[in-house]
Amino acid sequence: xxxxxxxxxxxxxxxxxxxxxxxxxxxxxxxxxxxxxxxxxxxxxxxxxxxxxxxxxxxxxxxxxxxxxxxxxxxxxxxxxxxxxxxxxxxxxxxxxxxxxxxxxxxxxxxxxxxxxxxxxxxxxxxxxxxxxxxxxxxxxxxxxxxxxxxxxxxxxxxxxxxxxxxxxxxxxxxxxxxxxxxxxxxxxxxxxxxxxxxxxxxxxxxxxxxxxxxxxxxxxxxxxxxxxxxxxxxxxxxxxxxxxxxx
Length: 248
Ligand code: 13P
Description:
Blueprint: E1 4-9, H1 16-28, E2 35-40, H2 46-52, E3 57-61, H3 78-83, E4 86-91, H4 94-99, H5 104-116, E5 120-125, H6 129-133, H7 137-145, E6 159-162, H8 176-193, E7 201-205, H9 210-217, E8 224-227, H10 234-245
Parallel strand pairs: 1-2, 1-8, 2-3, 3-4, 4-5, 5-6, 6-7, 7-8
């Protein structure tokens, strides 16, 4: 069975007070062992999360550099993330691809760096609205996934997140049938790229909220969610964890 995952991406939000709210939640959180609940705060809050979170709530980072150390001002290495007890790291998020001109090659290096340190990458892919309208979403996803052809990448230690760019922050998640179609396509692509494709968790991201999560959690090939806005409040995040937990 594929592990279920609910990962909160706080992006450039959150405060030490929010870490404390989630620290309290982590102490009362009960969930099945086959479900990972993760919070990915901004880098400066990782130390506080490490000190405060009970082990039921895992820590993730929002990015790492492709190299393990060196002259890269403002960047953070997977090595340091490991020391901050990060179990996961988001790589290739569309906001980083756009704001920091990250290419597929750079994302591939980040995946390798994370894996080298024993941190599971949450590898984000997704198409823009004009690409979907032009019927090119499959080509876009296949191109982004093709970096997994690098035989050094360990497909056994990888999570893929499908985040259609047009659904992120829009308030409306993608339609069920579009999600099922895209996840089925990603699963098939992974089968041609990795031996254990059926074990790779595929998350959906883009306006996942308490009022649309139950239906989402029951869709084929949806193994969890990568969540922005609704991961900032304990009351919302806990409902997302409960919904995916109920599927186990
Ligand atoms: P929202 O849930 O706010 O749409 O953000 C999704 C996302 O980008 C998670 O990485």
